[in-house]
Amino acid sequence: MSALTTNPATAATAATGRLRPRTRLRSAAGLLGVPGLLAVGFLVLVAVVAVAAPLLAPADPNFPAPLEAYASPSGAHLMGTDALGRDLLSRLMYGARVAILASVAIIALSTVVGTAVALVSAWVGGVVDAFVSRVLDILFAVPGIIFALAAVSVMGPGPTGVVLGLTLGYTPYVARVVRGATLREVRMDYVDAAWLQGRSGVAICLRHLLPNLRPLIIAQAVSSLGFALIDLSALSFLGLGVQPPAADWGLTMRAGLDSALRGHVGEAVSAGLCLGLLVASVIVLGDRLSKQAEERA
Amino acid sequence: MTLLLFLLRRAATLVVVTLVSSFLVFSLMELAPGSPLSFLLGNRSATPEQVALVTEQYHLDDPFLVRYGAWLGDVLHGDLGRSIAYKQSVTDLLSTRVTTTLLLVGYAGIIITIVGVGLGVLAGSRPGRLDAALTALTTGFLAVPAFVSGVVLIWVFAVQLGWFPAFGGGHGLLDRLRHLTLPAVALSLASSAYLARITRAAVQTQQQAEHVETARSRGLQGGYVMRHHVVRNSLIPITTVLGLTIATLIAGAVVVESVFALDGIGSLLVQAILRSDFVVVQAVILVLVVAFVLVNTLVDIVYTMVDPRISLTAGTGR
């Protein structure tokens, strides 16, 4: 409640009921802080590059020029070229597409499934909840990447198996957190009130519980996104995910290892930086969102 | 008595969980497209003798549950089947490689404990610039995947400086440890950063606790309060995270062993998947899952013993 009086933006909401766009933007900036703003800035940059890669990329990412292998940065190749003479900057730009698309798919799928399982389990309670939480405990003990390795061993190397495996691996994390929060939430008076009004369980879960859990679910999803990115590119690095000649940061890193041994470290450093900065941005943003979700609760 | 009961219950859960996961790992084969026979052979053309051997080994002519029972019986007798790509018994394949993985995970675990707790206590006890710098550093390390730090470490310490070998496992204990140093550092960076964050948060919470305030007002030395009041009470979250970290390290070893071309069970798993050697894949995944479950149970038990306030039989002890 004290937040209402201290935060001018929230006070404005309380007074007028609505928030002017500029005020809302400023209050969001205040909540994020400098590291959070930098993180959001980098995320927006990567997203724009990923979407507009065909427009922005200076060259065809798959155009080989063996005579220009390991060219130093120049006007023609701003970040130089790789072992096959392909333009590194263009490959990194196209690599952002795979990274974002696949990691968002994993987190979106696992968030939807995990939230549904958690809501049903916590709402129904009893034997169902006991069973679900036992299963979650067991799945939780096994790191997500192992599920992906199992999936790939059955479905063959490729992004489909990796995405399905990691989705299965990340679902218990979501379900565990959401289940815990739901169990706290269902004891609240507003749930009893809605129940006494004759609302159905489904309606209460979707209309009342879900909106209240939303900040937590989003924070959890953003935090997991970073780990999904790491696992995803690790599997491509191992040769089990995205296959060459596709432009992918994990694959660039693998090629970068061979190049580094021959004395060319450009690929490894640039792909590593892309990956590290993107994961760091997501972690910083996730931290901020989690802190806010906690303060709200 | 309660302790014995607690341990027995934990052991029972362990057995059930292991059985269930063995069943799931075995069922993986059924999920694969194509017949189990061609899947096990990895779509290789096989001699009739090999076909007969695999059919017999996996009891492919029997119904699914009978097959599972026979397989489980073999596994319990230490027979994990025969690798088709390596033409060797899987148990032999594993036994030569388990040591490398255990050494790697142990080495990384020691680094994580020292660096993670050290940095965490430092950051938690000195608010201000040092804390901010360390927090930025740990966020950075947390964001760097092990294969990226591995490649960078190879470039700096093996290619440029030549202090450590880039690849391979080495022979003899000292040489092995020298070969494992870069992999262990690569494996431990992110987890050290995570442990440092947890430790920092725990130390900060403890410093505001009343018992620490009391200790200070009684005039006890700062260092004494830190060691005997703050750090000791921060141990509970630290042990929990450290235990969970071991599971992450085993999974991380899969990646790190492949970066540094170490002959551990993680790189064996990756090779087996790439060579469609499903007998090996199944065995390694089973071993890994059993390891995770075992580690989790051990952490639970240690956790209960570290903190005498946790009741062994939930509900009644309080």
CATH fold-type name of the largest domain in chain B: MetI-like fold
* Global mean pLDDT of chain A: 85
The profile of the biggest β sheet of chain A is: none
In total, how many beta strands of chain B? 2
End-to-end distance of chain A:
11 Å
CATH H-level superfamily of chain A: MetI-like
CATH class of the largest domain in chain B: Mainly Alpha
- Which CATH class of chain A? Mainly Alpha
Estimate what percentage of residues of chain A fall within beta strands.
under 5%
Count of DSSP H/I helices of chain B = 12
> What is the count of structural domains of chain B?
2
Helix percentage range of chain A: over 70%
Structural class call of chain B reads mainly alpha
Q: What is the count of distinct domains of chain A?
A: 1
CATH architecture of chain A: Orthogonal Bundle
Query: How much of the sequence of chain B is in beta strands?
Result: under 5%
The biggest chain-chain interface is: A-B, 40 and 45 residues
Overall morphology of chain A: globular
State the end-to-end distance of chain B.
Answer: 16 Å
What layout of secondary structure does this protein have?
The complex is a heterodimer of chains A (297) and B (318).
Chain A: H1 2-6, H2 8-16, H3 21-51, H4 53-56, H5 88-124, H6 126-141, H7 144-155, H8 159-185, H9 189-196, H10 201-237, H11 249-261, H12 266-296
Helix pairs in contact in A: 3-5, 3-12, 5-6, 5-8, 5-10, 6-8, 7-8, 8-10, 9-10, 10-11, 10-12, 11-12
Chain B: H1 2-31, H2 36-40, H3 48-57, H4 64-76, E1 82-83, E2 88-89, H5 90-125, H6 129-143, H7 146-160, H8 173-207, H9 210-217, H10 222-259, H11 265-274, H12 278-306
Antiparallel strand pairs in B: 1-2
Helix pairs in contact in B: 1-12, 5-6, 5-8, 5-10, 6-8, 7-8, 7-10, 8-10, 9-10, 10-11, 10-12, 11-12
